[in-house]
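thought: fold this chain, then report.
action: predict
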Amino acid sequence: MTEKKEKWWKNAVIYQIYPKSFQDSDGDGFGDIRGIIQRLDHLEDLGIDAVWISPMYCSPQNDNGYDISDYQDIDPMFGTLADMDELIAEAGKRNIRIIMDLVLNHTSDEHRWFLEAKKSRDNPYHDYYVWRDGEEGSHPNDMKAVFGGPAWEWVPEVKQYYFHQFAPEQPDLNWENPKVRREIYDMILWWMERGAGGFRLDVIDQIAKEPDQGITNNGPRLHEFLRELSRETFQKGDLITVGEAWGATPEIARKYSNPDGSEFSMVFQFEHIGLDQQQGKEKWDLAPLSLVKLKACLAKWQKELYQNGWNSLFWDNHDLPRIVSRWGDDRRYRAESAKMLAAVLHGMQGTPYIYQGEELGMTNVVFPDISDYRDVETSNMYYERLEAGYEREDVMRSIYAKSRDNARTPMQWSGGKNAGFTTGTPWISVNPNYTQINAEAEKENPDSVYHFYKKLVHLRKEYPVFADGEFRLLLPEDENIFAYTRTDKESQMLVCANFTGKTVKHPLSDEWKDAKMLIHNYAGEMGEELKPYEAALLLKSRAGDDICDIIEGNRTY
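observation:
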């Protein structure tokens, strides 16, 4: 398959919605599809091209919808199939595509396939899942589940263990079975016929698992499966597809995002996400942040995928803490650091993703007690670590930094009751800072985080250098400044940012002083010093063939 034309998603900006927390339309405390429809004008105003929505399929909600019991129906907590059809249509009127979130590695244990599978070994659906013989109490091997405990669950009806990489209620599908793959392809085609504009594939690098060898991701048949999946489904429409692949390397990502379209449009990789995690330990074991390491990591991905693949650009999602609380200063310099982080990300090559509330500068939450949290991963970790002898204060510190619930508190629409999210009792408490941080206040303030994001979204569509320009990292060893250039045939762009809460020297060369200021998170021009969390994008026409030294005495990556 050859690339026929420039892909629309190369100039797009995508918004992620966690539907449970976005907007409740009926007062039951849970966000829903009609709530999303009510807020489409917000997304249109921001300039969004597509919306990725976390799963809304029928689900027992053991893992907040990532345990699907019916791929072809909507969970009543979110609405109906008719509501979904209306959402797709209403978004389309605003030139916004809807990206479905698909979980193809596992199902719920309440899915009809699994209910049949556990009846007997002779059942036609038994081989839809991964089973191993054994004796109760003696697991096939010592593999552990991501959410804690063993990765094997005993079923007395068949006297076998099934494999689950996540919760016991999420049995893994057997992709070795061609009948499973056919069922999945037919389901995807069904959604495409209903108007789905793309798909995000949850933990897709784990479908080719080989648990007997301890292999959970990047199994030997992974890309064979993905090419077949793409050929049978995605290539039949003008879609955007993105795979979640925690184990991706640049080499592997080039396969995922090959310009020939044989697999996906792009892939989510998470190398930059683990930089505040102690080597070889869990995500809860915090390590000091290093700007030098962050720059090296992001530069590597920019360089390795240039003209050989495509990057997805993100700081936040439903599984991650709020970026302004992680890499910025969510108190004294909340607005400045939120804008700075946006500028650095959106200046790179790739498709940017904005997670709900990121455009407002929403922050992590500090709930006083574990009972305030709803995430199964957070709860399991809390009790496991207390039992292991950890101090409660240390455990809570890790939760405040890394819990998935940091991203799942309700969207902060206004300073009114429950932040305008619901007229009822929200399923998880609203972050108390909603009276200061909310969409209404942000939109009224022309210097807000929201208006900064809105301008960035429009700049990406206006200037081709955002999509096409070659990346060049400057000052790779500088512990304060993140600076890089993007260069295409017509122009050069400089992105320069202070990642600290202090003023630092900024050796900007004379030739950039006359460049066009595309966006700046402080009033006035940039001086020889960068203020706390100051950031700007500068643009100038390219004269001649030489790429100039942009920062005096610079060293490049």
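thought: worth noting. Residues 109 and 169 are 5 Å apart (CA to CA).
final: tokens above.
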